[in-house]
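hi!! sorry for the late reply, been swamped w classes. u asked for the two structures so here they r. pasted raw, havent cleaned anything up. first the sequence of the first protein and right below it the tokens
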Amino acid sequence: MAYNFKSESEVKEYINNLGIEYRFGCYSEKKPEVCHLLADFLESIKKDFEKAGKVYKTNCDDYKYGKSCLKYGTYSLLGRGSKKADFKIAYDYFEKGCNLDEPDSCLNQGLLLVTKNDKPEVKQDVQKGMRILEKACKYENANACYYLSGMYIVGIKKDNLPGSLTDKGNSDDYQVAKDMTRAFEFALKGCNLGNMYSCANLSQMYAKGEGVEKNQKLADEYKSKALDMQKEVQGRQTLTFQEGLNPT
């Protein structure tokens, strides 16, 4: 049936039929990908976060659908669809998603581990977190590659956050020592995957000869690439329905 999307009544009919289709595919045919779409529908169209969260959770637990694990983990982190946020539940579901090879889940699990916070239920473990971020980068998560590059650029000092580090101190003071060669490798991959900050870092590395042989031509090329990406991001309008929730 062809719908006239200029007609309010036909739009409502289309949306109603879409919900019926997703419910049938999920509950009767037990298709995990359709259950995830149903949860997206409940979230984006119905704005019923509580029901959406329940569907994401069940689809993760029962059908091992990684994207639903990611979404329920994000819901738990934000307290969406529930009375309060729960970092432990969020971490557990990011871990489930990562074990199902969902790159964004690995990114979120890794970031929770490398970040020092006041949540005792998620203990900081930089080494484990970086291993998980490496898995996310391997599975072509551009943000994970970028974060790893940044950690190797500055090093991770003991008992400090990555963002508060300096070059001062002995190598024994660091959990992860500065390594510009590794920083370059991760920045290159991140840039190739479309992370503009990785491209900007590459430009600086080539300009200074850090982690790679100095090359002003390539420095200029990567700077231009980063600026082009920035313009594209600023001008882009995206529709997130059916794409899953981006990590925060």
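now the second protein. again sequence first, tokens right under
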Amino acid sequence: MDANNQNTALLVMDMQVAVISNYPDYNEITANVAKAMAFARAQDIPVYFVTVGFRPGMPEVSMNNKILAASKQRAANLSMEGLMKIDDAVAPLPGEIIITKRRVSAFTGSDLEVVLRAQGIQHIMLTGVATSGVVLSTLREAADKDYLITVLSNCCTDSDPEVHRVLTEKVFPHQATVITLEEWSNKQ
């Protein structure tokens, strides 16, 4: 892991009430991410929030997209503002950047890369829901874009604990450093 905090950012991804309330470890994951955010801020590491969001009626979503098409049908008559609300336990501070994405990866359909490059960020630390969704997709794309990547394993969760375990223990280490929040905070 890059020790230089000057070019590091913590990404808090898909921690929206509409997303994380579906997970049984909701309180544990929000508590861990909140601790990671507090630690990052204390180290002068910027915290960027990534949310998934769409226009009313979700015109950005093709019915060919298996994951998002199901959401489009369920959310057809719901307020997009309500769906994009970040959980209060991990809410941004005034002035912190919120990035809206249109697909699973934090990079796809967003200005994340523009923000990271403008701020000189070369190392991203990933947190969020789900491990097999936004974390996996963002990690893969970030690796292809030559970012240094750290995954805080206990600041991510998945609906299937075995999938989370396999990704964090067997797949992610090929492209990222995988550590716990406690390991990160004890190294600084």
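hope this helps!! also noticed smth abt the second:
Helices lie at 17-20, 26-42, 66-74, 80-83, 112-118, 131-144, 161-171, 181-187.
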